[in-house]
Amino acid sequence: MGVFKRAYLYVTRKKVRSILLFLIMLVTGLFLLVGLSIRASAQKAADEVRKTMNTGLVLEMNPISGEHLFELAQNEDGEMERRLKVPLLTQSKLEQLLDIDGVCGFFSEMGHETLYTGLEVRPGGYSKELQQIEETDPQGLDESLRQSRLSDETYSHTNGFYLIEDGRWHPFFANGALELTQGRHIETGDYGKAVISEELAKMNGLQIGDRINSYNFDFITGERYGTAFESEIVGIFRINFEQDLSNWTSEDNIFANIIFADPNMRHWAQVEYNTHYGNDVLARESDRVISEVTLFVEDPLLLDSVKEQVLANDTVDWSYYSLKRYDHDYQAAAGPLRTMVKLSTVLAVIMAAGALAVLSLILTMWVRSRKREIGILASIGVKKQTTLAQFLLECCVVAAAAFLLAGLLAGPVTDVIGNGLAGMVSSPGSAQPFEVVIDQQSNVMVNKMPDAEVSLTYHLTPGTASGVFLTMLLVSVTSVVVSSMRVIRQKPRDILGGG
Question: What pTM value is reported for the model?
Answer without folding.
Answer: 0.65
